[in-house]
Design a protein that fits this description.
288 residues; Metallo-beta-lactamase, Chain A; 7-stranded mixed sheet; alpha/beta; 5-stranded mixed sheet
C-alpha cells in the first residue's frame, strides 16, 4: 500500500467516526496548558495552539471537514487570525486542514520532506495545502512572547517529523513521535525506524523535566513519566525482536513466537496490534 493511502487507513481504522465519514459528531475539546498555549482534541492528531498579540500559531490541523469547528474553538480563546500552521509530519490526520487554512492566508510550515511528500502525493495536493516555509534541522519562532523551538528527529515516525518545544512554558508537542500509552505507528515506508523512534523520545526526555506537559500525536495529555515508559517498552520490544532475528527466525516465525505477549494487554490497540508491532520492529531491524 502506498504511504499516503496507508496513513489514511490508519485514520479510518483508529477512529470509528471517521470510518463512517461522519465528522458532524466530532467535538473539539480545548485544554489550557500554560499562558497562551492550549491542546485541542478532536478527530485525528492532537492539535497545539499558541495565542497572543502576534496571532495564532497552530500545530497540526486534523481534517478539512473539521476546519470550521477548529476555528470556532480557536475563536473561543482569541480573536486573532491563524498566521502560522506547523505540520508535525505529512499524514492526512495532521495536514487535512492545510488547504482551507492556506486559502485563508495562514503560512504553512514543515520539514522539507513533508512538502516533498505532499507535493508528490496521488491524488495531487492542492497548492494552497503545501508548506510555504520549510526547514531541514531546527527553527525557532519568537512569537506571542514565547520561544517556540522546532527540531527534526531523524527517521522516527517518518522522515519528516517535527517536535515543538515551548521552551519558556515547558510544553512539548510530539506529533506522532509519541503515541501515548500504546504501541506507536512507525511508518517504515515513509522513512520511520524503530531505532529513530526511540532516539527521538530520548532526545526529548533529555531536554525536559518532570513538570513538562506533553501533547502526544495521539492519546491523552502526557508527562515525562509517559515518555520514559514508552522508551522502556520500545527498548524491550527491540531487544526481544533482535534476539529472534539473531536466532534465525523469519518474520512470520517471529510473529508466531508471540514475543510481546506480556506487553500486549497494556500497549496493543485496534490499529497497532501485537502482530503489527512485531512485524514493524522486525522489518525495521532487518532493513538494509
Amino acid at each position: 500500500m502506498k504511504p499516503i493511502l496507508y496513513a489514511a487507513a490508519i485514520v479510518m481504522a483508529a477512529t470509528p467516526a471517521l470510518a463512517q465519514n461522519d465528522f458532524s459528531k466530532v467535538e473539539i475539546k480545548t485544554t489550557n496548558l500554560a499562558e497562551g498555549v492550549y491542546m485541542l482534541e478532536g478527530a485525528g492528531g492532537n492539535i497545539g495552539l499558541s495565542v497572543g498579540a502576534d496571532g495564532v500559531f497552530l500545530i497540526d490541523d486534523q481534517f478539512a471537514p473539521l476546519n470550521k469547528k477548529i476555528l470556532a474553538a480557536i475563536s473561543a480563546v482569541t480573536d486573532k487570525p491563524v498566521e502560522f500552521v506547523l505540520n508535525t509530519h505529512y499524514h492526512g490526520d495532521h495536514t487535512g486542514g492545510n488547504e482551507p487554512l492556506g486559502k485563508s492566508g495562514a503560512h504553512i510550515v514543515a520539514h522539507d520532506n513533508v512538502r516533498a511528500r505532499l507535493a508528490n502525493a496521488k491524488p495531487a495536493t492542492s497548492v494552497a495545502a503545501l508548506p510555504v516555509i520549510t526547514f531541514s534541522d531546527t527553527t525557532t519562532f519568537h512569537w506571542n512572547n514565547q520561544e517556540i523551538y522546532i527540531f527534526h528527529p531523524e527517521n522516527a515516525h517518518t522522515d519528516g517529523d517535527a517536535i515543538v518545544y515551548f521552551r519558556n512554558l515547558n510544553v512539548v508537542h510530539m506529533g506522532d513521535a509519541m503515541f501515548s500509552g500504546r504501541y506507536p505507528y512507525i511508518d517504515i515506508a515513509a522513512g520511520g525506524t524503530l531505532d529513530g523512534y526511540i532516539a527521538s523520545l530520548e532526545s526529548v526526555a533529555a531536554m525536559i523535566d518532570d513538570n513538562v506537559k506533553v501533547i502526544p500525536g495521539h492519546g491523552p495529555l502526557s508527562s515525562m513519566a509517559d515518555i520514559e515508559r514508552s522508551i522502556t517498552m520500545l527498548k524491550d520490544v527491540r531487544t526481544r525482536i533482535a534476539a529472534l532475528i539473531d536466532e534465525g527466525f523469519d518474520e512470520d516465525a517471529a510473529v508466531a513466537a508471540d514475543p510481546l505477549a506480556d506487553l500486549n494487554e497494556e500497549w496493543a490497540w485496534q490499529f497497532i496490534t501485537a502482530e503489527k508491532m512485531v512485524r514493524t520492529a522486525y522489518k525495521s531491524l532487518t532493513a538494509k
